[in-house]
Amino acid sequence: MIKTIHDWLFSVMPEWAASLTEMVLIAVFYLTLFAVIGLYLVLLERKVAAWFQMRKGPNRVGPWGLFQTMADALKLVTKELTGTTKADKFLYNLAPYFVIVTALVAMSVIPFTQSVQAFDINIGVFFLLAVSSIGVIGILLGGWSSNNKYSLIGAMRSGVQTISYELSVGLSLLTMVLLTGTLQLSEIIANQQEHGWLILQGHIPAIIAFMIFMIAGTAETNRAPFDLVEAESELGAGFHTEYSGMKFAYFFLAEFINMFIIASIAVTIFFGGWLSPFGITEGIIWLQPIWFTVKVVGIIFLMMWFRWTFPRLRIDQLLKLEWKYLLPLNLMNIVIMAIVIWLGWTI
Amino acid sequence: MSYFKDIYKGIKTLLTGMSITGKYFLNARKGALTQEYPDNRDTLKMFDRFRGEVIMPHDENNEHRCTGCQKCEIACPNGSIEIIWDRQIDPETGKKKKMIDQHIYHLGMCTMCSLCIQACPTDAIKWGQNFENSVYDRSYLTKVLNKSGSKVKAGVED
Question: Does residue B73 sit in the same domain as residue B140?
């Protein structure tokens, strides 16, 4: 379908206009996806949180509360944008865009199906890691320019956390890259189509890598139990204390999109992306996005499960977990994976 | 080796926690704790220990158990209870006897401390379960607990 639209555009328009239209269409598609995913993940989070706490969750606006988050978004759009007088206005206004643009850029390389991938570069995994850690600059800017001590503490914690856990995310993905021998996301999936999902191929080291990736990924997205950045009970709202209305909503949306991105990476690297389990529906193209969505929702549910089970870590515990446990384990795991591949023990 | 033991223990305890919340998640639809109040107004029953307001139960003969001893009035720390009484002739025995005219209860002043109910020697007053206490005028909060024409139950004073 995408191929036919592409051909049709190039047949009716001159080349420059066609490629421009195509870019605009892709941008609109991704922005729509962004908004829909953000809104419905917020709703999912609230519903799942309610069920974990034996409550009912949003159930008034629309059937089963399906329009609740749209109503919330409408409220946030119409709200007044307030700010502190002594804030650094330029950086203060720039911060939300940093956060949201990096999330959007990271989304462009994720293969939703075999053909829906905006940007298939040969350093896909590396690009994802690089871009997703730029988001922290937005958080640091927001915390610094707000001229508020709570924001600053939150932002500094975020910096510490991202620098530490970036290592674990990178190393755990590197473990899997040893198996595939390529960083290109479409190639990784092609490899899995041939030899089975990477988590099965790599068995024990792959499972350890997946566990480390989930822990570090949860920390990357600043979600509980690693939500020291926002730490409601200590810091008000952390780095976005001074933001209101739509600017706050950008931070809020970006948090959920980052969760989606981490889940998508996990699905692509460990669980075969849009592939069906054991190739049961191979060849049915319209099932590919459904398999992808099912897997991503599963991983997101796992992250929500973490959030509503574990208490928040202290900052020293956070750093101890990373530097004394995750990092050494990760390095050991890479060696184990290398040995497994060397001896040909992969499944 | 205690390093790996710590990791094993850590993962085990985390999984224990997750299994507990997982059980809650699976049972959430059956055992939701949420009371959707205005919707379930007809069926909502408050728990026994709930202190809504002080009431004086009357039986089918319009008889209550209050002898007018005023112990509740004395026990009340903020003067929520006033008892208006006088001495009347008991029609059965022909003797003069203390009888309540009105047992006045100011709900607006009551702090639900339960001292009056503990002080009552004849269990004439009890906690009611009504919680819809908001009214449009403060004067509605002053209530007369004994119904008009009611009298004390025979035998309570013995």
Answer: yes
Q: Which two tokens stand for residue A107?
A: 């989304």
Interatomic CA distance for residues A13 and A21, integer angstroms? 9
Report CB contact under 8 Å: A55, B33. yes
**Predicted-complex ipTM score:** 0.74
| Cβ-defined contact of A51 to B20 (cutoff 8 Å) | no
| Pair A18, A28: CB distance under 8 Å | no
Positive/negative CA dihedral, A190, A280, A30, A104: negative
In contact, B54 and B125? CB cutoff 8 Å:
yes
CB proximity list for B22: less than 8 A, separation 6 or greater: A305
* B42 found inside a domain: no
* Residue range of the domain that includes B5: 1-34
Give, as one character, the DSSP assignment of residue A279.
G
Whether B47 is in a domain gets the answer no
pLDDT > 70: percent of chain A? 99
- What is the structure's pLDDT at B16? 92
Under 8 Å between Cβ of B100 and B66: yes
Instruction: Check A55 against B36: CB less than 8 A apart.
Output: no
For A301-333, letters b (16+ CB in 10 Å) and e give: eebbbbbbbbebbeeeebeebbeebbbebbeeb
DSSP structural state of residue A81: -
Residue A197 tokens, joined: 């999902």
E-state strands within chain B: 53-55, 63-64, 81-89, 96-106, 126-128, 142-144, 151-152
Quote the tokens at residue A72: 């919330």
| DSSP assignments along A122-147, one per residue | TTHHHHHHHHHTTHHHHHHHHHHHTT
The domain that contains B99 carries what CATH number? 3.30.70.3270
Backbone angles phi, psi at A278, to 5 degrees: 55, 25
Give yes or no for A54 touching B (CB within 8 A).
Answer: yes
**Number of A–B residue contacts, CB under 8 Å:** 39
Q: What are phi and psi of A121, to 5 degrees?
A: -100, 160
Q: How many residues does chain A have?
A: 347
AA letter at A146: S
Q: What is the pLDDT of residue B46?
A: 82
pLDDT reported for residue B136: 92
